[in-house]
UniProtKB/TrEMBL annotation:
Protein name as it appears in the record: Amidohydrolase
Database matches in SUPFAM superfamilies: Composite domain of metallo-dependent hydrolases, Metallo-dependent hydrolases
Organism: Chitinophaga parva
Gene3D superfamilies membership: Metal-dependent hydrolases, Urease, subunit C, domain 1
MF term (GO), any: hydrolase activity, acting on carbon-nitrogen (but not peptide) bonds
Length: 466
């Protein structure tokens, strides 16, 4: 192990170079400008009580009826049973009788800053665009998003400001600059800062550049995209994993094939960031993931979106909850005859349908065996993968795959927080944790689509604009 630490750039004299101060100052000024127009109701140190609700706390147990959620500032102070416990005197009371409260969702696989109007490109990556997307996520009840590997330099100051509560909307977690392949994935059009090492030595040098930023994860792409691109070699991804771990960082891998997933798990990867889709997972692989604590993010919506527009009926296409989440002009694009014709002519259409059904089988097997499943969507990477709606569709697909609504909610809340190593702060609604919750008109334990019935969203004790 000491040899790996030296190879990965961890020596006593390894002092990270300081980033340009003026650049970060400019980003912070842009953040402040984006926050000038109020989009939230400010929190305070005064006690606030949400009374009369059914509570889904995110731990997986049955909903608790007739309770009151009490918080001060950004922290939950009590869960009270109405009729038994007295409400605190002098508190601000919000009567939500008949409604349901659950934790805000955690998108464990998203992308920020790329979508704008009918384009998904690196040129759209600005602090203003990122903040706009964070607000949209929040309006849909997404309280945190892990942006996996396509970020640019502005993300670091934004991430720190977001975590300090100085940026509105969903809280940012980021992998910063991911690790891809020269002339391979991910597409350079929206991943302009991705490292593309050709040798293990270049991978180690890149990790040495990335590590001082303290990314929340390290992202790498291990996929040949249906044989159309070169795939990252085992020597390089083994180096990335070892160097990341030497720096105290965790690694998430984009995968498609079962054999790649098996090798990555053997080599110590921490997260499989997409479904395994070429074949059903074996009991041996499932047990390896469970015993090693590897997280699994199925991104089922990605696979359904990949073929849905070739069908004669897209179930969500005229749902206002979906339409309101789209970038300007995208609805017209998705409903055009040309778009549908192109989708129907896709030479890989049947393979994509097979991949989706395989993904559904595999997430059911993973969850049933005790693998830690999280909710992620890859939203924000392509125009059809809309930010906000996709997270609710992912819950629906998890339930369709065989999870109960409460199990799917736990994947999207408690498990996501654990994957981000913030389970002591957020992910469940308990005293001492963050006041990040959604107030719903209907109970999603009865029907998972009831997560659409959003009345209010609060993130870290601050009500979000909708």
């Amino acid at each position: 192990m000491p040899g790996w630490r030296v190879f990965c750039g961890l020596t006593a004299n390894n002092i990270p170079a300081m980033r340009p101060f003026l650049f970060y100052a400019a980003v912070l000024l842009l953040c402040c400008a984006a926050c000038q127009q109020p989009s939230t109701t400010s929190g305070s140190d005064k006690l606030t009580v949400i009374k009369g609700v059914t509570l889904i706390d995110g731990n997986g147990g049955d909903p608790m009826a007739h309770v009151a959620l009490v918080f001060r500032g950004d922290e939950i102070t009590a869960i009270l049973k109405e009729g038994k416990d007295s409400l605190p005197a002098g508190a601000t009371i919000i009567d939500a009788t008949g409604k349901t409260v659950m934790p805000t969702l955690i998108n464990a696989h998203g992308h920020l800053g790329l979508l704008k109007d009918t384009t998904a490109v690196a040129q759209n990556y600005t602090p203003e665009n990122i903040v706009r997307q964070l607000k949209q996520y929040a309006a849909y009840g997404v309280g945190a998003v892990l942006s996996l590997g396509t970020d640019q330099e502005a993300i670091w100051a934004l991430r720190d400001s977001s975590r300090a509560g100085k940026v509105p909307g969903a809280v940012i977690y980021t992998a910063g600059y991911g690790f891809g392949v020269l002339n391979g994935g991910p597409p350079a059009s929206f991943a302009s800062k991705v490292f593309r090492p050709r040798t293990p030595e270049e991978a180690a040098a890149a990790m040495k550049q990335l590590a001082p930023h303290k990314p929340d994860y390290v992202k790498m792409w291990v996929d040949d995209f249906n044989g159309s691109m070169p795939k990252m070699t085992a020597a390089i991804y083994d180096t990335i994993i070892k160097c990341a771990h030497a720096h105290g960082l965790h690694v998430a891998a984009h995968v498609y094939y079962l054999e790649d997933a098996r090798r990555l798990i053997d080599n110590g990867v921490d997260v499989i960031a997409h479904s395994i889709r070429d074949k059903e997972v074996s009991d041996t692989l499932v047990e390896a993931m469970r015993s090693k604590g590897v997280y699994y993010i199925p991104t089922l919506t990605l696979d359904q979106y990949s073929f849905a527009y070739a069908t004669d009926s897209v179930p969500w296409i005229n749902d206002p909850f979906f339409k309101n989440s789209l970038e300007p002009g995208v609805y017209e694009m998705l409903t055009s005859a040309a778009y549908k014709a192109k989708a129907k002519k896709d030479k890989d259409l049947q393979k994509k349908i097979y991949a989706f059904h395989t993904a559904m089988v595999n997430v059911r097997k993973m969850h049933a065996a005790g693998v830690k499943v999280c909710m992620g969507t890859d939203s924000g990477a392509q125009l059809a993968r809309t930010q906000g709606y996709s997270e609710h569709l992912e819950l629906e697909l998890m339930v369709l795959a065989g999870l109960t609504p409460l199990q799917a909610i736990t994947c999207a809340t408690k498990n996501g927080a654990a994957m981000l190593h913030v389970e002591n702060e957020t992910g469940t609604l308990e005293p001492g944790k963050k006041a990040s919750f959604i107030i719903l008109d209907k109970n999603p334990a009865d029907n998972i689509k009831n997560t659409h019935t959003i009345a209010q969203v609060w993130i870290n004790g601050v009500q979000q604009a909708r």
